Amino acid sequence: MEGFRIYLYDKNGNIIGIFLAPSQKEFEVDKLKYCSEYIEGENFISYTEIKNPILDKKTGELREMTISERVQAGILILSDGSYLDEVNETIVTIAKPNEWSIWDKDSHTWKVDNDLLNAKLKELREKALKDLAEAKSSFLNQPLEIEKDSKKYTFENNERNRNSLSLKISLMWALEQEKIEKVKVLNEQKMVEFIELNRTELKGLAKKIQDIIEIADVAEQMAVAGISRYTIEQMLELNVSDFFQN
Fold it and tell me: Given CA atoms 166, 170, 171, 175 in this order, what sign does their dihedral have?
């Protein structure tokens, strides 16, 4: 079984060695028997390891450094957001509130750095404009429902189909036709079909498309204006999809 440990330090807090004795009581009866290097008044004995030793000026004893002493000695390095409460001998940590604040060691507070703030705002605005383009595209390309002969169909409202429909309507008007025989749609089984639409039905479909385009354009203008003036808090909460509502 391992014996009782005795730690021996010099005046500078450097460890001289670790010695063993059967017990503390037996060691104290004859210190030199178990610790031949011990010199009373020259070095110091401890029954526990002192990781950060310092010579106490008041008591003349070697002891563990306090938190304050470790900070002052550079053994304990405080990270940003932490400071020493010397009264209570504790380290206080304040969480960083955001990415654009820096730690002020003098006031023990986080302070806004305008350069970081403006850089973050620029980043958020650039991302918002990119998201806006995607949200507008998604809104513009929403599928439209068509009912024909008591059956429901879906018009895939993408740019290619809109352009194709616009060209067919123009030709229909120019040729004074009453109907278009081939309008590509999806039936209720999601299978492609080509159906016949007359002037009235085409006008209804074209109006739906135009209404969506107008709503999208207005929403985009509002969003761009907002993005240019919103605070960083508003930008963090912003969801550009909220601008696009039927």
Answer: positive
Burial tier of 6 (Cβ tally within 10 Å: 0-12, 13-18, 19+): buried
Domain chopping of the chain, boundaries: 4-62, 65-112, 119-243
- The string of DSSP letters for 151-195 reads EEEEE---HHHHHHHHHHHHHHHHTT-SEEEEEEEE-TTS-EEEE
Question: CA–CA separation, 156 vs 164, rounded Å?
Answer: 12
Counting Cα atoms < 13 Å in the Cβ hemisphere of 53 gives 21
Q: Which of 67, 62, 116 is nearest to 91 (CA)?
A: 67
pLDDT tens digits for range 139-191: 999 999 999 989 999 999 999 999 888 888 888 888 888 887 788 999 999 99
**Helix pair angle (114-140, 199-229), 10° resolution:** 180
Q: Which two tokens stand for residue 236?
A: 């963090």
Which phi and psi (to 5°) does residue 139 adopt?
Answer: -65, -45
Which pTM was predicted?
0.69
Residue 108 exposed, middle or buried by CB count within 10 Å (0-12, 13-18, 19+): middle
| Bridge partners for 8 per DSSP | 17, 45
